[in-house]
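Worked example 2:
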Amino acid sequence: MELEEPDFLVALTHTESADGRLLELNWCAYNIHTKSVTELSNIFINPSGEELEDIFTSGEVTETTGLTLQDMQTAEELPSAMQKFNKFVYESIILQNSSFSIITNGDTLLTQLLPDECTRLGLKLAPHFSKYHDIQAEFEKSHPEASQNLSVNQMLRHLGLTEVPEKIRAHEECKNIIRIISHIVKSGHKFNAQKDINTEKAKPKVPPPVKQEIIQPPLLQPLLSPPKPLYGKVIIMKGTTNKTEESEIEEFLYGLRIEKILHVVDPYGERTGFILSKMLSDEDAQEALCYDKRKLRNRTISIEEASEELFQLASQNAESMLNGERLFFIKIREKNLQLQAKSKWSYLHNGNYYYGLDDKNDIQNYQQLRVDEQEIINIFRSSLTKSLPFLTSEQRSRAVKLRGFHQKFKKIEVLEYLRDFEVTKNNLILRQDSIDKTTGEAIVVLKTQEEKERVLKTLSNKMFGGRLIEAIPLINT
């Protein structure tokens, strides 16, 4: 059974340094049906952790590749380069409801260079990089009479085509691959067997024998019918601000199809910095995971899988009229439709269901399942709370943490709570998370150890403004 041939072949070539660092990517697309070609695109890449001047000092790179230090003045970071390539294939191919496959000259770029660069930056390669065609293998299948392991220029000469030199060798190589593709497609060759980067990585690197039979790769699913991924359609983005707009998320996920974007709100209707995006397909969601750890407004965004159920709960929360009323929280492992119907706010985290109830009579029936409001707050500020300003050991020994205040509280409220003590605003710190929201916690540096002990004895577990305030020695937290 033959695999279905893609509509487009995207030739992808590169320039690398003497130490194997990726310096440039070039691409050009060939439409197999119309025999048309797009213009050559290229991006110079700034290798992370390297100084460009050091790479070009010896002149070896320029001599072997044609690339100069002056060319690199417009170099971009790898995530930006990947985003532009994804934008190209999306606008030029996917929007036409067409399929495509990358074609390279050999295996090194996709099995070694690009994965290594992504590993350095903690990036994930998009799924369309996992399978590809190799012009060397395709040429050997279409012209078995030719010698094996020919260079691109040697393939041109075998076909009787004239070499057209370019200043940068990788540009010349990309254009020549397209010329070879055009020639062998017109002669009837079919590109219906891809390589898999995982299979090629596992192969031992040994010199090829003098005579080698053409071995067909294992049978793969057709390009237009990929195996169903294990991912759902919903992703959760963490690390945005409470002012991040939907248009910014759409730009961040450029090239992916989004059905709906939803801001996750806390029990008081405030944005948490978590955003749920429901993608149009499983494939879009899978590719969105590759955007993990990229930056939006100089903030690193974490992207994880999320469930459809979480999306539905968050959607109901966003539509509810949350007016900051006092809620009591229940935490259970199993979904409870009765509780969900009564709750003013619901959430799903680490396999636990959280329900916020406002009826004290209801809460009595579930008293053993009740959790502190602080546990809810911690869900959204985990790993996001800003570090405290520097305090000396002596200051920490006199400090107390107060927690349980409303998330919109101000210093004047804390000073009112501490009205029997000599505390000024300068000795008071309101804890904030990474989106500059107060967390319900305050740090107070008292004048003496005796004052600290008096706060712990008289103000711990005391009601204030309808809320239970705890006092804890800072040195123990």
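The CA atoms of residues 401 and 472 lie 5 Å apart. Residues 208-231, 382-387 have pLDDT under 50 and may be disordered.
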